[in-house]
Write a structure and sequence with these properties.
7-stranded mixed beta sheet, 9 strands, alpha/beta, elongated, Arc Repressor Mutant, subunit A, homodimer, 16 helices, Rossmann fold, Methane Monooxygenase Hydroxylase, Chain G, domain 1, two-stranded antiparallel ribbon
């Protein structure tokens, strides 16, 4: 995979411009978001061709002219709007903000989950604690908080999660079922999305969802009218507790976007417990997004940015890993990589690791 | 002056990338800032050539490896760092963040003044009130709050202010003194920077600083060991009160980066009072940054972003104006533009308007 970060691609003038974009990143974001949320951007897009004046837009969205003007003028420099003869039209970038599911998921996650807490990033780095999580109350990690957060915030979290794991499920299913596992353990099964995909994919597989009590309570409700639900079992526990063992005898253990929620020593400890939970010839299947396994620099950028959420909000000690950092943990737990499949999912962001006991 | 915003300069791929930069703007900013504040970026820059490993940097800044790694890996995608063989070096963009006064002023202002309040930008637009100002307490405008804010926050505010007005003073002085004014009224004189420049520039001019009591209290202390301080006079008042008249008989009235703190009706009302305060052949001199009078698109972008601060934090009803919006107010108050000087100051961001009574 190409190293996207070997060369400085900007000349001095471009670097100076880029520095200002960094410096104004927060207000750029909030202006762009407000242009979406107020309906301004959608109105302008609808007027394609002739365009609209500030006054016309203010009338259509029923907002004060002043605020509409400040946002729309900022939208010019941000690259969302164009203007000629006091008539505004929208750009291609605006199209992505309005219609691209991934861009919207990123923006909602940033605003609803990360924005306020990100103010405490530097302190979080210094203290090794998610100091930004205080914006949601007094929780040790965001996983404890999740079930108790407002519906809108929960929705933003789960939609984002979807783009970084669930979209790779169709590609991962045949790879996992190539060995026809009879008993599969789904660790950190979340809402049960993967488990339901397995039920549909294989008529015999028995699945055990292992997760925190709060998460499982949500997951259980999602299996009510699902065919094959009798093949799903639930096992509660918290793997942060090093004494917490897993149930045993599984042909396959599946962890999707799960181990990035843990520090390196914790990952090693969890994988050691997976060793004990595997049947004789079982395999551990790990789906992760590694920033150095992205085809494009933009993919790496997005994954690296997600790491900052773990630092400032989620738990203060995990991240979206570089593959070498992560593979060192896999090895330390006594596994070796049998297969590595990069570029899974519609955005090619995910890697599936197939791990077997090192002999 | 060129219209920088007539054409969509991005193709679809670039637009998709730009959309992600917008979506992650807040975490890009906080990561960049933390890389500066922790000393990481400076350490890497110092190592130019060979570069440093994550472990070496963590040792030098005495911070946990985990946090250093998350920040530095994010720094790759942000374009501040490069990596080859696990050794990190810094980019040209990093140089601007570390050494360019304007970039640093923008970043400090964003973090200390705007970041938290900018979360309420959409609400501020809807309500026409600076809803983000609540992050500093219960104040009607930021000007009321300023004298009471923590020293660090005040410093960030005044440093930023400097880059948008004071740096144009040397260019503006000969233009204002071309008519040899004997009595000059400095409205919104702030810390008295302009007044001191006038005292040095002209041995006879008498200057009256007009401002809010809090601001004048600060300004007075700045004249203590200044030559010619006996030619400076102070006049207190709040021009938001439409009944508040100005003292009279001035040859020149000076307002630098002042009228952008007011709404259009307020600007008209203040300029009408300037009419009454001017001597027979007096002039009003207005120094402002208009986003449509910037030579480069980057300049326009910065000025437009500053507008959002007025909306969400300063007062909820003013902005950095487009020149046509502003000139309409000047005209409505009975003035005409005698001269317009664009591109003043080291960054060419300021315009000086020389206004005389319309006959």
């Amino acid at each position: 995979m190409k190293n996207h970060f070997e060369k400085d691609t900007r000349n001095a003038l471009q670097a100076r411009e880029h520095a200002q974009w960094i410096a104004y990143g927060p207000s750029v974001f909030q202006a762009a978001r407000a242009l979406c949320e107020t309906g301004i951007l959608a109105e302008v897009e609808r007027s394609a061709g002739a365009g609209l004046t500030l006054e016309e837009v203010a009338g259509r969205v029923a907002l004060p002219l002043y605020g509409v003007r400040v946002l729309m003028e900022a939208g010019l420099g941000i690259g969302l709007l164009l203007e000629r003869g006091h008539r505004y039209t929208s750009t291609k970038t605006a199209w992505f903000l309005l219609h691209d599911g991934m861009t919207r998921a990123h923006m909602d996650f940033m605003h609803d989950i990360s924005y306020r807490g990100m103010y405490a990033l530097e302190t979080s780095v210094r203290n090794g604690k998610p100091e930004g999580l205080k914006t949601f109350g007094d929780w040790p990690t965001i996983y404890h908080a999740l079930a108790h957060l407002p519906e809108r915030v929960r929705k933003s979290w789960f939609t984002y999660d979807h783009f970084y794991s669930d979209e790779a499920f169709p590609a991962a299913l045949p790879l996992v079922f190539a060995r026809s596992p009879r008993r599969l353990l789904d660790i950190g099964g979340n809402t049960g999305q993967w488990a339901r995909a397995c039920l549909r994919h294989d008529a015999a597989v028995e699945i055990t969802l292992f997760d925190l009590p709060g998460q499982l309570a949500t997951a259980r409700t999602q299996f009510q009218a699902v065919a094959g639900a009798e093949r799903v079992h639930f096992s509660e526990g918290n793997l942060l507790d090093a004494q917490q063992e897993l149930p045993g005898g599984f042909d396959a253990i599946w962890m999707s976007q799960f181990l990035d929620c843990f520090s390196e020593p914790q990952i090693v400890s969890i994988l050691e417990r997976c060793q004990r939970a595997l049947a004789a010839d079982g395999r551990v299947y790990i789906l992760e997004s590694f920033w150095d396994r992205q085809r494009h620099a933009l993919g790496a950028f997005c994954v690296q940015q997600l790491s900052l959420y773990f630092t400032a909000l989620a738990n203060g000690n995990s991240q979206m890993y570089r593959s070498s950092t992560f593979l060192a943990c896999v090895s330390a737990a006594g596994f070796e990589i049998e297969q590595q499949h990069d570029g899974l999912g519609a955005h090619g962001a995910s890697t599936l690791l197939v791990c077997r006991r090192r002999t």
